[in-house]
Design goal:
By secondary structure, the chain is α+β, with helices and mostly antiparallel strands. The chain is built from 4 helices and 8 strands, in the order βαββββαβαββα. The protein has a 4-stranded antiparallel β-sheet with strand order 3-4-7-8, sandwiched between helices. Strands 1-6 form a two-stranded parallel sheet.
Length: about 150
């Protein structure tokens, strides 16, 4: 059964995102940006009921806390039967990270695989300046899908 995102939030069916104390003082370092890629994200289109697949990229400069990876994986896996538009789910992930971890800087990318010849990428970024080193990680990001009929990789 498909549960709309707003109902899932009201019912509290998504697991908690756990954190741990940041092991370094990011205000004293020149970088410390963390990149977490999750290439097998799945949610459900609330209009059609068809599955949507995406690679989710999380980039952040921690302040006091870091995201515990297993809890992040379980959190993302919980969206398997959640109905949400690409924009809504990416926005929710971004807001969740910002509310729970309170990073000095964060960026969340939802790179959704093409369906019906429609290719969607959604990006949310904090308004704080991008820290040194972040662009190096972003340049390394290679989305998992290739646009058919094109020689460019997204």
């Amino acid at each position: 059964m498909i549960t709309p995102l707003n109902e899932a939030l009201d019912q509290g069916i998504l697991p908690d995102i756990e954190t741990f104390p940041c092991p370094y003082a990011s205000e004293k370092s020149r970088s410390g940006v963390i990149r977490i890629l999750f290439p097998e994200f799945t949610c459900v289109c609330p209009k059609t009921g068809y599955p949507d697949f995406a690679a989710i990229g999380l980039y952040y400069l921690p302040d006091r806390h870091c995201i515990e990876l297993k809890s992040w994986k379980l959190y993302l896996n919980a969206f398997r039967m959640i109905g949400a538009f690409h924009e809504a789910v990416t926005s929710h992930l971004f807001r969740s990270v910002c509310n729970i971890v309170e990073p000095r800087w964060a960026l969340v990318v939802g790179d959704f695989y093409p369906r019906g010849n429609v290719d969607t990428t959604v990006l949310f970024e904090t308004d704080t300046p991008r820290p040194q080193g972040a662009d190096l990680l972003l340049d390394r990001y290679e989305p998992r899908c290739v646009v058919k009929g094109s020689d460019r990789q997204r």
